[in-house]
Write a structure and sequence with these properties.
Blueprint (H helix, E strand, L loop, with lengths): L1 E5 L4 H7 L4 H4 L3 E7 L5 E7 L3 E3 L4 E4 L6 H9 L1 E8 L2 E14 L7 E13 L3 H4 L18 H12 L1
């Protein structure tokens, strides 16, 4: 069952998104939900190498400039990010604003997200115990991720 936990990143999400431990999270994915022009839910994924916490109240995303997800965020001004990892699920809702393409990475749009609410999804003890989340969404690439390039992109998102 989901319950509102506030508008600031709780410690587990702050640790995932503050950019300090990229190597530990490079193969994890974040579910992104927007609404398309026909009012249908539109889902996409970003990696932890494309999202950075500016503060506990603000995130910056780096989706592709021409993607449907980017267009939806810019059109509606809304986004929900789903963070699934061992032991927790959080849904971060926010207002989104496109800030333009990154000069150093012209195919990447800088999107500012002001957090408006965070829901935590935990099993209801009386009904779902001993259910627990064992793993998050993980991806495997053919080539190892270039962490130095990811750090440069996240630094560009922060400015």
């Amino acid at each position: 069952m989901s319950r509102l936990v506030g508008t600031q990143l709780p410690d587990p999400l702050w640790e995932l998104l503050n950019g300090q431990h990229l190597g530990d999270h490079q193969n994890k994915a974040i579910l992104v939900a927007t609404v398309d022009p026909e009012n249908w839910p539109h889902f996409a994924m970003l990696s932890f190498l494309e999202v950075i916490a500016i503060s506990r109240e603000e995130l910056r995303l780096g989706p592709y400039v021409g993607s449907g997800t980017t267009a939806n965020m810019k059109r509606t001004g809304k986004v929900t990010l789903g963070f699934v990892d061992e032991g927790f699920v959080y849904y971060v809702k926010g207002t989104a604003r496109g800030l333009g393409p990154l000069a150093e990475f012209p195919g990447i749009e800088k999107v500012q997200v002001k957090i408006t609410g965070i829901l935590a999804d935990f099993p209801v003890e009386e009904v779902e115990a001993p259910a627990r989340i064992r793993t998050g969404i993980q991806v495997e690439t053919r080539e190892p991720q270039d962490l130095a390039q990811a750090q440069r992109m996240l630094a560009a998102l922060k400015t």
